[in-house]
Each structure stands twice: as structure tokens, then as C-alpha cells.
Amino acid sequence: MRYLEAGKRHSVRFTLNGRSVEGEAEPRLLLSDFLRHHLGAFGTHVGCEHGSCGACTIRVDGKAVRACLLYAVQMDGRVVETVEGLANPDGLDALQAALQKHHGLQCGFCTPGILMSLSQLHDEEPKADEARIRDVLSGHICRCTGYHGIVQAALEVFGKS
Amino acid sequence: MKPAAFDYACPENVGEALTLLAERGAAARICAGGQSLGSMMNLRLVTPEVLIDIAGLSELKSIALVGGAIEVGAAVTQAEFLAWPDLASFQPLLAKMLPWIGHYQTRQRGTVCGSLAHGDPSSELPLALALLRGEVLLASRRGRRVVSAEDFQLGMMATDIREDEMIVAARLPVAQVGAASAFHEVAQRHGDFAIVAVAAFGDDKGVRIGVGGVADTPGVIDLKWPVDDTALNDFAWSLGGTDDQHATARYRRELVRRLGRRAIDEVRDAIS
User: Fold this and answer.
1) pLDDT at position B189 over 80
2) Are residues A64 and A119 in the same domain?
3) Among residues 83-112 of chain A, which lie with CB inside 8 Å of chain B?
4) Which residues, 6+ apart, have CB-to-CB distance to B130 below 8 Å?
5) I want to staple A70 with a disulfide (CB 3.0 to 4.6 A). Which of A31, A47, B119, B269 is the partner?
6) In terms of residue numbers, what domain contains A127?
7) A–B: how many Cβ contacts below 8 A?
8) Among A133, A142, A135, which Cα is nearest to A104's?
9) B100: domain range?
10) Could A50 and B190 be called an inter-chain contact, meaning their C-beta atoms sit closer than 8 Å?
11) Is it the case that residue B272 has pLDDT exceeding 90?
């Protein structure tokens, strides 16, 4: 049995945006804090830290999940994707470009999490309709946009506008 | 907003998890998806000394038909159960209720059994377990036992799980031929905790109504056709809801009457 003691640091190794990363973490260290403060990947934002706001949403083995409800030590051997992995050398990916075009963000705090949820939805359900998009977005809180621009951006990428 | 220090254990099988539970008792907590427990640990409402992570145990990952019930292993996520191809044919009520549990992002980690263990009276799975008269399968080093829905949930976030026990599976009865079901919920935003959730299923003999979000445990009543407004009103009052920051008791009673009527009529129309 893998048994990691409190107060001690344990080695963790996983794939982050296609690149192998490693570090040391106490069991209590949240994945969101490990990404930001140990790996310097500040793209993942931290809001409520109890799973409600959706700001810290990332993808683990393809699934959009809350990084504040996971511990770094649980990530050994897993594939983690964050907002930093979306853009390609030519520029923004389609979802990012559409958010820019449709004013789907203002302060941008919630945007990385929203992008990671929409990226899973697009991979698995590329024909999702507005109701489904809104259902997935209900797991995120945005206080700037009123969501309309976000929905419009998603609809364009999902071929519904 | 950070959890207190804890040991993290990742057992290889249920036996190892039970041995650790027997040794550490109340100081240990089982964690499957961690979507409720992790949140409570971040708020330091819960501070276990050791967290036993069962999410990776393949023996708890199965969904199977066992004696007229769907048996869902303790590591099956809500998203996996929702994606089970036979769900809508074996128990349409669950296919209606599961999309209301949390959000897309939390259903991908959160488990069916974890929600039952958490025992929040406003969440959908405890209501489904109570309405369908399901069972919970518990295990410890002392052996296994099956607990009925009625005996399982004792109060708000209080269950019959003893210190050395863990849930290994939940059994949710399949729908009988000729039965129909309905589900309605009002929450502040889709996916938030229910202010009132009403589930109903019935056949030509009568209808059973279950209500979550009002009392400390889901309230269930069996009614004969035809169901008049007086019976529904009496049931709404019997639940004994109180005022809180989300809604008044009076508003909750009104929701029970209105959502209840809608659900009852849908069941009646579907079977006639």
C-alpha cells in the first residue's frame, strides 16, 4: 500500500501539457497550489477553494475537474492539462480566439477554467447544443460577462452560430 | 481554505482499506471522488488524520444487475453511472435525476456511493435511495451487512456507517413494468443544492412521492389514486421544513405542492 505521511514531502511525477514534470508535495498540498507555486504554472486560477466557483478547473486524464479538490500526490502518473497547453505556436486555439472575438471575458479570472471545461466538451461532444453548453457552464461563476459572450463564443466553435 | 495535515493512503484492495479503517477508526476517512469531503476538509469542517483513497480500486468500479437492483460500486463516478447505457431502460427515474447532481465538472470525480455517505438531505442520490427503497452494502473487518435506505440515513449528514465500515456498493431497484416516474427540482442555479426536489414513481395502484431539501432526511409517502390536493398539502406540512437563507418554510411547502402536483400528474398520464 502506498502510504504517505503528513508533514513529509513525497515525490510526484506527472505529465503537464505534454511535458513530464516532477516535484515534492506534502499530502495536504492542493493540486491547484502545486501547479502555481511549485511548477510556476499560474494559468490555473484559484477562487473559492472549495469546488464551487470553477476557476481552477483543469483536465486530468481528459476530464475537466476542480484542481482545488485534488491533491498533488494523487497525480502520480496522470496526464494533466491546463490553459497553458491550449494555444499553439500560431496563436490562440479556436475557443480562445472565439472568446476574444465575442467579448467572452473581461477580467479573465474565470476564463482558464471555462476553457478547460469547454475543451473537454468539444473533444467529446463536438455537436453539443446551447442547452448542453449552458449546462456545462453552470459549473463556472463569471461576474463580468453575464455569460452571453461566452455562450456565443462556444456556439461559434461548436458550429451552431 | 487549505486542508489540515493528513496521511494519505492508497490501498491496493478493499481488504487493505478495511484493515486501515479497523486500525484508525474515527481518525480515518474514506475518500472516493472527494467532491464533498475535499470541500469540507478545505473549510476544516473535517480534519481526518488519514485519508484512504479508494478511487482507483477496480473491484469497486462495477455496475451490475443483482436481484432486481442496479448494484453500483463505491468507486463508480456519477458521470460513469449517467453514461451507463442501460440506465434509462432499467431505471428511468435515475436517468432523470443524475444530471441534477452537482455540475459536469464535479460529476466526473464525485461518486454515487460517496454522495450517499455524505448524506446531504438536499442532494439527489439520498432521495433516490429513499424513494426506490434501495440498500447500501457496508463492509468492515467484522464482515459485510446490508442496510435498507430507511435505516441508512439517520439525519442531516448522519448515516449508519460505523467507524470501521465503508460503503462498497449501493443497490438501486430497477423500475417495474408498467411503472412511470417523474422528477422536478428548484435550486438557485442548476446544479446547486436543491431548495426542493420532488421525485415520484407509481403504477396503476398508486404513486410514491419523495421530497429532498426540506427535512433532515428525504421524506417519502405512498398515496393511492386519485391523489387530491389535500393529501399533497398534508404531506408538505408533515415534512416540517424551516426558514433558512435560501428559502422560507412557506415557500418550500408551496414548492412541494406545486412540484408534487406536476410530478404526480406526469406519472398518472404516463401510466394511463
Assistant:
1) no
2) no
3) none
4) B149, B150, B153, B210, B217, B218, B220
5) A31
6) 94-157
7) 104
8) A142
9) 58-173
10) no
11) no
